Amino acid sequence: MLKVLKAGFFNTIQDKGRFGYAAMGVPVSGAMDSYSSDIANSILNNSLEDAVIEITFGNCKFQLLCDTFICVSGGGFSVKINQRLIGLNKKISVSKNDILSFGNLNFGARCYLAVSGGIKSEVKLNSRSFYKGVTKNTVLQNGMDIPILQRSKGEFMSNSSIKINEAHFSSKEIKCYKGPEFDLLHSDQQKDLIERLYSISKNANRMGYQLNETIPNNIPSILTSAVMPGTVQLTPSGNLIILMKDCQVTGGYLRVLQLPEAAINCIAQKSTNSQFHFVLEDL
Amino acid sequence: MGHKTTYKPYGDSAILIDWHAEISISISNDILEFYKKIKDLKDTNIVEVIIGYSSLTIVFKKRITDYFKEVKSLKEVYNLKDISFKRTPFIWQIPVCYDVDFGKDLQEMSNITKLEISEIITLHSEKLYRVYFIGFLPGFCYLGGLNERLFLERKPNPRLHVAKGSVAIGGKQTGIYPAESAGGWNIIGKTPVDFFNVCLEHPCFVKAGDFIKFITVGKEEFFQIEKEVKDTSYEISKVLYNA
Fold first, then answer.
1. What pTM was estimated for this model as a whole?
2. Is A37 near chain B, with CB under 8 Å?
3. Cβ neighbours of A127 in B, within 8 Å
């Protein structure tokens, strides 16, 4: 077990998400930055489908109730075991009663805590990803016991190291494709979308990131149709919203761009007011 | 089959199929038939099929390498001739209490529409509503068939908390909030029935293509049903729809 001593503000358990339940209106969910969660799982020799803890605002604390190995990947939060700082993207041996703490954010926006064998919390609709109304918990709570596997120290020895792509955190280029309604936009709107610098507003969560900049828009909304993580919507009031992993399955706003998974991962590591531009690519 | 459809890529791992952009039962039936044909393939490369009013989106597990090949095979599936893909829909009889204690906007709606509250209730509960698809929130049904005398713009300031089970009108649509959420629709009643319960084998009883008929119940009956829903002894009445 892993005990939550201090839950922090919005930390959740995530895996690759729920697929096949859109017909019931259930969102995909899953790790916002699957590039980083994959790294954490890979370093521990876990399956990429294994669940991890997604830590978004830091300031949280856990206690190990058994020996195991952990790995933290993604954004930098000054992670400590007891009082000792530990590095990211490394397999780290931890012992029963060790205290694992996450401090303030240094770079990126969120990180992933993987444990050997994966987090074993409840599976609902084929996934452990937290989602309101589906899993019992929506965020980690103080005092919660999270099921993990015990691993004795000699049990698995490998010293894999993975080179992290720095651009994943620093790049201002967000690769995208034309969305289904891109061609409905006026040419000055299209130009705006591709040429301007955009930034993430305070209104950003697992459902979507609203941008600070707006694009004047008088094109009517569409008949409600599918949206997906990475869909960029343009609202009648001119707001742009990048839909993220907990987004609803359908929407009526214009779908002007579509980000591929790698670009969603990149956006997931940007914080309020981070600037970037959309780089349109051909399919 | 026989409807005009257009295919386009939707990002690097999905294909969007559009029908003529209108809300029509004929188009919706065509979409649902295609949906079922695709689902029956049990193709593990397809991870999600998302239904819209006049669209179907096929999401693939991986990046699509040969778009034209995928479109070609989807078109072949669309043209499969097999009557078994037609499913006879159900009419679900959903108890609704239109008491003003639940229908918090009934009075205001009556003032704006110049309809008596009793007329609003009759006009709302006499219709058969088709479930076009489920989206927005788990268990939220996009219903068609609202009487145009009940069309009413969304509230200028959305409520932060709309109770689970609230039956409401937003513009030209009516719907049921399957969970507590923020919302700007005008609330006219409440149902004790769960539209999404993850603890059940089938978390959402209703499927796209089904119909919903609201049955007026009093407050006492509402609370009785609510109790039965809680201890899972309540069974929602349904009848087969005969087109």
1. 0.93
2. no
3. none
